[in-house]
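Hey team,

Filing this mostly as a record. A colleague (T.K.) asked me to run one chain through the structure pipeline before their review meeting, and I want the input and output archived in the tracker in case anyone asks later how it was produced. No errors, nothing strange. Just documentation.

Input sequence:
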Amino acid sequence: MSDQDFDKHLSRFGLTAFRSGQRRVLEAVFSGQDCLCIMPTGGGKSLCFQLPAVAREGTVLVVSPLIALMQDQVDALTNKGIAATFINSSLSYAEQQQRVTLMSEGRYDLVYIAPERMRSQSFLEALSTTTIQLLAIDEAHCISQWGHDFRPDYARLGRLRQQIGSPQTIALTATATSTVQQDVCDVLELRMPAVFVTGFARENLSLSVATPSSNSNKDDMLLEFLRVNPGGGIIYCSTRKSCEHLTEILQGQLKRSVATYHAGMDSGARRNIQEAFSGSKIDVIVATNAFGMGIDKSDLRFVLHYNLPGSIEAYYQEAGRAGRDGLPARCLMLYSWQDKFIQEFFIENSYPSPDVVKQVYSFLCQCRVDPIELTLLELQHEIGVSVGTEGIRVSEALLEKAGAIERMDSQQNMASVRILSELPTIVDLLPRDAPARRKVLQGIEERIGSMRGERVFFAPMELSRQLDMTWEAVQRNLRELNRLDCFDYVPAFRGRAIHVLKRVPFQKLQIDFVELERRKQEEYRRLANVIGFATSNRCRQREILEYFGDEEKADCGHCDNCGDGNALIALPGTASSLSVKGNEGAAYAIQVTLSGIARTQGRVGQSLIGQMLCGSEAKKLKQLGLHRLSTHGLLKELGHSDASDLIGYLIDGGFASKEETQRFRPVVAITIRGQACLRGQNLETALFMLPNKMLSLLNSRLRGKQPVVVESRLQVSIKTSSANIGDGGDRPENDGSAVELAWDDADDPSSAESSEPVKTTGSERSDGRIQRVDQSEMIAAPRSATRPTWYWTWRLYSIGMTTSEVVQIRGLGGSEIARHMEIATEQGLEIESVWLADLN
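Output structure:
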């Protein structure tokens, strides 16, 4: 199709031009190729299957999990004169049948369905007489077990696609890792698909990151942001407790309507809140990531991430919900270093150990009821495992993939059956003197038709009327039929349920725990990427485009790092908030501290670095050679605790990192953001994140000091009239002239000469000095090492969470939490008495 033809059909949708990437996708569609299209929220994915619907003969069948939004989407199309409809469970049976009939007659350009509709034999039969020109799978990441919203019905679409003749297919999603992309293509069996990753540039979005120094400072930043940013928006939090906490604060201090949304609320309340927000009756939603997929509200003026998201994919999908009308919108992330511990807990909980999966399987096999109607939380409590509900969910997914169980939804209280046999009929397997059973089986086979191997749902009373038998008699015979190995019947139930398919020794199940561990490490890599994004001094938009492989990458010119991110407001926590002038002492302390951290090369902890900066002559510092570093004693005006606190603030702000390269022995290292600060970038941001008390202390005690001026990589000149500094071993008195702090072997603790032997894995050089220690040899336990469950309880407390929050996240009782803290104490970890003060 020519470009002119493309432009002609654009007018049907009220458009005059294509968005980035749309034309290339459509060219592939019109050439007959299968496609995988990855475009961000608001990038215009829908046009890629809607335009072919009006430009070519036949019907476009759209599979979408968003039943609540199908009506809105269809209304928008019909208002443009496009013949569209939806068929889902919100319609009466008569309405569904009427629309199916019209579809088979070719009356519709587009038909939207939920994935479970493809289970219906009557619907598949109707599709066999319908000209399907294109099958569009929206929210295609739901296909992959490793996508962030996996749905079993989506996983069956590949097989069902075959049953309708494998029509040309386009799979669409906002974000997908390479693993998810491969899963989608494999499950759908796409034929040499054209893959498009494009349209990620959102020029109307201003992306910013602020670094609060404490939880109270974070709340202050949030309130200030909302006061100067009018309009509707979403605030994303990591936990339900945080949602409720923030909503309470905002409702008391804002003159805007605010509501909470998370998965712990009942479905009716969630639906009402979503509808009120979409209808602009609620201004601000404070939500977990349970809120958002399919939100069709184009005029959101902001999205704020109160906590660090788990990946760049999650961040950009959520941030992309702002400004879908093309008007300016703001996206702010409040990055606190401690937030990563919550995400690490989520990762650990999402990849249960083999022992946990075995416990889940053993419990399910021992249950005498079928199906097993227990919620995830009920299963967690019944089994007594230490993982949260997400760990139970993943365990179920693994067992289902291994063919041991089947996770089921109620399908409006319908019963279901599956026949696992290639025989034309299995009626002949029954004895001749069982006419009732044979009659029931014949009725079931008629309903299943060609869908052998698939679970088919049916209304119990409808089958009863068809067979002219009482339901009690039908049910009794179905239970008898269930004794056949090839016949699998599940009675009607309400809610969610588990159906056990086979009971075999756990070790015989084909579960690839090696692959599970690999994917777990991939999650850690994705978390590291989003931390890198938060601490980067490069253009935020460019970081996003390069991450997703978008070819059209360029600096945006209006994020915080491009220098125009505060064009709308002077955002607290950004570089325009606090001047170096008047804060020279604090600026000097920040850069000297970062210089000292860099010189220790990530080998020692926070306390030792603080002592070194203050000029300590302690034996341990001399053993490590820290007394020979050129930054030794540069902050001698400060106390050890003050210097250690300053390091902590720099860690919180992302200027330094704290990692456990040895178990329970965290070390501090400089980050890319910290290196930039040494070059004079982000220094105002670092000043702002300091509490007023610390700011005043540094300025008063270090009066007359001047900030560092960096000339090259970690080589700095400090002009001062009082500092006693030198470059390694000599340490001459300073006469007021510039003294260079060079990064060389003299600043390496492992290379320093000492009167006492240095314990190291390195070897001695010919000149008697110790070679630099290979850091890879210092790592006692790799990140993949499984951390004990008690550790995560301690970790949540250590980052400032309350007991109620720990209980909510961990799903543990008070006695178990107390036991975890007891173990932590035995392991030498510090426990504050206030942590357990409110533990019942």
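Quick notes for T.K.: The CA atoms of residues 678 and 807 lie 41 Å apart. Confidence is low (pLDDT under 50) at residues 565-577, 709-785.
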